[in-house]
């Protein structure tokens, strides 16, 4: 049984020569047992994979939402240009300022929550871009130049589009490597079956 575990570990590491050497040391029944384990994932593994996938997608959505939240006031202003005249709020200069303040305060909470949802670290580039755009606008505005919220929004959308393209390219490369890895494992299994 110890040899079987070593072989499965080596298969995961894709070390063909060592796997073939160890497989030759096994009898036919042990080889069949290993091949059965490789070709038939357990029901628990399938359920765990689906749950992890759903959890990861939910986490990605939360991280992306946290990046969009500081710009919700710009969305509302584009959709409802007269919203500040219609809705009056005490203490704040206008309604969109209330929305922006709430969203800026809520963004870190969403990011912290997403840390518990198995999100790939690459996805955190979206809130980083959002924070950089907002911080840069504050610094530029404090020097005397004026960058409107809409301009910040357009810069944000441009940078996010670039980040999405790069992220999709990384995901494509990851999936391609995974596919090649699976093909290599299947070739190895077929090679073993031919020897038997």
Task: Calculate the mean pLDDT score and round it.
Answer: 78
The biggest sheet, with number of strands, parallel, antiparallel or mixed sense and barrel status, is: none
Q: C-alpha Rg, in Å?
A: 26 Å
What is the N-to-C order of secondary-structure elements (H for helix, E for strand)? HHHHHHHHH
Outline type: elongated
Please describe what this structure looks like.
This protein is mostly helical and 196 residues long. It has two domains: 2-40; 43-178, no CATH class. The protein has helices at residues 2-13, 16-24, 28-39, 43-68, 72-79, 83-86, 95-114, 125-142, 149-195. The longest helix has 47 residues, at 149-195. It is elongated.
Attribute tags:
196 residues, mainly alpha, 2 domains, elongated
Summarize the structure.
This protein has 196 residues and is mainly α.
Please write out the topology.
Elements lengths: L1 H12 L2 H9 L3 H12 L3 H26 L3 H8 L3 H4 L8 H20 L10 H18 L6 H47 L1
Helix pairs in contact: 1-2, 4-7, 4-8, 5-7, 8-9
